[in-house]
Amino acid sequence: MNKQQAGEAGNNKETAKRPLIIGHRGAAGEAPENTLASFQLAAEQGCDMVELDIHLSADNKLVVCHDATLDRTTTQTGLIRSMNYEAISKADAGSKFAAAFSGERAPLLEEVYALLPKPIEINVEAKDSYNGALDEALDAFLQEPGRMERTIVSSFDHKLLARLKARMPELRIGLLYGAALIAPAAYAGLMGCEVFSLHPHYSSIDAEDTAEAAKANIAVFPYTVNEEQDFLALLDKQVDGIITDFPGRLKQLLDRS
């Protein structure tokens, strides 16, 4: 989805409003989060976009993992930033979820791009700047042909996003936030650069927020939504996309609507 399409989705409320299906860490409700198996499942279930998280390894590889350590999601422990990717790749990131996924690992960002067909977009959440090292690595990564145009970079660190936008003016950025902001679209206007999307916690937004975002040509992608009643409430609020651990569940609901 490009900026024009997001604007059309936001500004034609009566005619558009099938929101994008955005697989949270792939299909994290049914496969180990942030693994190739999870992203493959999300694609098979019909997602339009996947959301994932990145950290930087000791050898400056962009590693897909939510936490700064391997402890919670793999059979190994350790800080990603202090380990080379060769060591990280030996950690089993699947068996804690289910034995059937034994052998899955924390992939490199480039592997996810190679796995997913190009109609599927990728929302990269930057977890930490690592004193600017991640900014550099991500900039270099996105300069490769075919990557920039299918990418949105989001973060709770809005200063990091502003720096990335200054480095890469063509980059689409998304503001992650958990608080119930008074005026999210107005806040985006204070960034001093173009904001593509707002990524609020689903419980913190209302119809006025989405209407104001639409007027500003900013998409709204709430996270992380898994129950049918919450899907339906967000459809009523006319959001542009829904981030979910169960992309197949959301697709089934949208297909019935």
Automatic annotation (TrEMBL):
Domain GP-PDE, chain residue ranges per copy: 19-254
GO biological process, one term: lipid metabolic process
Keyword annotations of the record: Membrane, Transmembrane, Transmembrane helix
InterPro entries the UniProt entry points to: GP_PDE_dom, PLC-like_Pdiesterase_TIM-brl
PROSITE patterns per UniProt: GP_PDE
GO molecular function: phosphoric diester hydrolase activity
TM helices/strands, residue ranges: 173-190
The name this protein goes by in its record: Glycerophosphodiester phosphodiesterase
Protein source organism: Paenibacillus sp. BIHB 4019
